Amino acid sequence: MGYTFEYLIETLSGNPHKKFFNVPKLGGTKYDILPYSIRVLLEAAVRNCDGFLMKKEDVMNILDWKTKQSNVEVPFFPARVVLQDFTGIPAMVDFAAMREAVKSLGGDPKKVHPACPTDLTVDHSLQIDFSKWYCSTDVCEDWKPETVLKNQEVEFGRNRERLQFFKWSSGAFKNVAVIPPGTGMAHQVNLEYLSRVVFEEKDLLFPDSVIGTDSHITMVNGLGILGWGVGGIETEAVMLGLPVTLTLPEVVGCELTGSSNAFVTSIDIVLGITKHLRQVGVAGKFVEFFGSGVSQLSIVDRTTIANMCPEYGAILSFFPVDNVTLRHLEHTGFDKTKLESMEKYLKAVKLFRNDENSSEPEYSQVIQINLNSIVASVSGPKRPQDRVAITDMKSDFQACLNEKVGFKGFQVAAEKQSDTVSIHYDGSEYKLSHGSVVIAAVISCTNNCNPSVMLAAGLLAKKAVETGLRVKPYIRTSLSPGSGMVTHYLSSSGVLPYLSKLGFEIVGYGCSTCVGNTAPLSEAVLNAVKQGDLVTCGVLSGNKNFEGRLCDCVRANYLASPPLVVAYAIAGTVNIDFQTEPLGTDSTGKEIYLNDIWPSREEVHQIEEEHVVLSMFKALKEKVELGNKRWNSLEAPESVLFPWDVKSTYIRCPSFFDKLTKEPAVLQPIENAHVLLYLGDSVTTDHISPAGSIARSSAAAKYLTNRGLTPREFNSYGARRGNDAVMTRGTFANIKLFNKFIGKPAPKTIHFPSGQTLDVYEAAELYQKEGIPLIILAGKKYGSGNSRDWAAKGPYLLGVKAVLAESYEKIHKDHLIGIGIAPLEFLPGENADSLGLSGREVFSLSFPEELSPGITLNMKTSTGKEFSVIASFENDVEITLYKHGGLLNFVARKFS
């Protein structure tokens, strides 16, 4: 509890046992014009103001948001932290390693605990092993989740080692709760189970807020909960009782007007808003929704929209609590007494949005989106922001074939655009061509929170099966919900058997296709694609479609709503105009068009009301709290220090603390550094640190093979993030990495002292043996995509001392600083090309004793060329962390 503003504490009307900080009294009219999201920041500042980590000056800066936005840094203490397995395991491994480091420096390892409540979801990510099964009846009325159980059994066996580590963590560390496997993915469980909307701690009420290691934490913004994804390193800082520091953001008010068209789903609205906000430019800003159109959106619509906000670059997308929120909470079984207290509290502190109140907050900028202007669309073929109306899909795909290779083009010669390749599959012959769908996945990340679109897919499948339509068997179809809730309502509504009949089997719960964990395509398909050099397609209801992400051989990937995924799977191609061309024919030969089987809004809403019920939320709660037999019977150590197994290929004590001493930190110059990689624009964290399968020819594969593992046992990079040896070898191992030294996509670089072309890891290893520091040259938006701490940790362990880029994704830049890599920027308008750099030069840079945010430094090269670069630090805290060699070393020194 804060100290400076204790005089603002009052009791809640009608409930003297509930207390709260009456922040509006502090601000008066200044408070009334603040955006709702800024009011939440202000409340947290008031409540945590102790004159040290949170100063009175910080509180007043937030209150003066109108004049201080974008000009000051402010700390923020979230109420809780959410970790998912991919990024949660390295965070907990770091905590375990920190205990070792503290002990080695003479400190007490028992002092190392998270100070902030932390929830860790175990099964956020899923590797598909089984994707097909067959039942005895035409419509699979005797459906049983054999596929789910098979995948869960394999997952549990494959990941037993890290599951034991998670269970040790839950017992060894205070304030750590582990959500058992088989429950659901991080942002889904966060939405359905962990979210409070209003937090209560020792009878003190305050707004729920959360940060976490998943970029889609923003999903809870749809419930009126302030939350966003940050890097694993920043998350660890919060877990250790430190605040997140952010520039007091601009808040873009997004006014929604009108109502959506009959066949437009939430995904269409999401993609429409994504494209609009990308065009406006909201990177590094808050977005807050208001207007008459907001009340027409259900909570599931809002959470779907909020979930996509990382794709248009905003920090978060906030929907203030209103009557729609309260009705949703009531329908999900929220305690009525708590609901009444929540409403009273939110109204008392003016955090409740009321349609009858004509006055709206003041925003940095207001944009308007008419929901009626949004049409059904998909997004692709290579980026989520490239939206295509389904009415234009056929012509747009043809244009993509003609365009030069780039963000949309494939540059297929005109005479080859009509080529087909025959394949034999399951005793029948089929033809593949450009545009053929080979992967169709209804996956969880953007859609499982929205029953309407999932039910629409099921109803579409039902009508398709009833008319005799089928999906070609060579198409790799899958259905991966985010939680058992989705399975429940698909099953109880009677649509699941029809999805199954079309090949959309439930394969398990968690990220799968979206992160490259697709089951392998058949040899017949792979050979045909290679033979015809075909641009085949994947269609998925996710939010990531970068080239090669789903499968190396699938070059075009489209994001679509779940019913459109089913529709394109039935069509077997994206090269189709749904308005004029049929999906197929029924048993009488009658042509069946998409309009014939598309479910109406009334049908969907009726099913939703009947089957999305309280029982689903109760079921999830029971699953979380009771666990399952495998998890409950799993044995784990009970020691203070984790007993590292030197033979383990999953969990290894990382080397971040190897050089840690109690000596004062001093800024070290970068002298005679070679360039490890010379990269272009939009290098993603996937390029830097892949999350999917481990290629058999990679350095990581060699490491695992040398330890007796077979390729089937490799698992994925995401699953092995607790092993720094694997992750370092996996750094820059993406086959789509384009290094200008090589001139084509490949995870290779040149070791300049010897002139050898090597895997990136092998070259870096040689440089380190020679004592040569490394830097990376890059273009715009370096580190875009998912927040991924290993995209900074990996380069650090490769010996990279600095990255010199034109611009950065903010989360990734924070990661670089947090691990101890200097983020340098070219001066505006300059880049490596304009400066005449080849990347073969040797670079040197010195830091002044008093390093300040945004200071200009002088870079020297071995050719005699000198030029200025910007040290892209935003505040003194970042400089302090960098000076100490990163957050982990800084905190370990503090504990010691």
UniProtKB/TrEMBL annotation:
Q: Where does this protein chiefly localize?
A: cytoplasm
Q: Does the keyword Metal-binding apply?
A: yes
Instruction: State where the protein is found.
Output: Cytoplasm
Indicate the segments forming the Aconitase/3-isopropylmalate dehydratase large subunit alpha/beta/alpha domain, all copies.
66-572
Keywords noted in UniProt: 4Fe-4S, Cytoplasm, Iron, Iron-sulfur, Metal-binding, RNA-binding, Ubl conjugation
Gene3D superfamilies recorded: 6.10.190.10, Aconitase, domain 3 (3.30.499.10), Aconitase, domain 4 (3.20.19.10)
Q: Which GO terms describe its cellular component?
A: cytoplasm
Q: Which GO terms describe its molecular function?
A: 4 iron, 4 sulfur cluster binding; iron-responsive element binding; metal ion binding
Q: Which cofactor does it need?
A: [4Fe-4S] cluster
| Annotated ranges, domain Aconitase A/isopropylmalate dehydratase small subunit swivel | 701-827
GO biological process annotation, one example: negative regulation of translation
Q: Which family does it belong to?
A: Belongs to the aconitase/IPM isomerase family.
Question: What job does this protein perform?
Answer: RNA-binding protein that binds to iron-responsive elements (IRES), which are stem-loop structures found in the 5'-UTR of ferritin, and delta aminolevulinic acid synthase mRNAs, and in the 3'-UTR of transferrin receptor mRNA. Binding to the IRE element in ferritin results in the repression of its mRNA translation. Binding of the protein to the transferrin receptor mRNA inhibits the degradation of this otherwise rapidly degraded mRNA.
Query: What assembly does the database describe for this protein?
Result: Interacts with RBCK1 only in iron-rich conditions. Interacts (when associated with the 4Fe-4S) with FBXL5. Interacts with CIAO1 and CIAO2A.
The protein, known as: Iron-responsive element-binding protein 2
Q: Which source organism does the UniProt entry give?
A: Cricetulus griseus
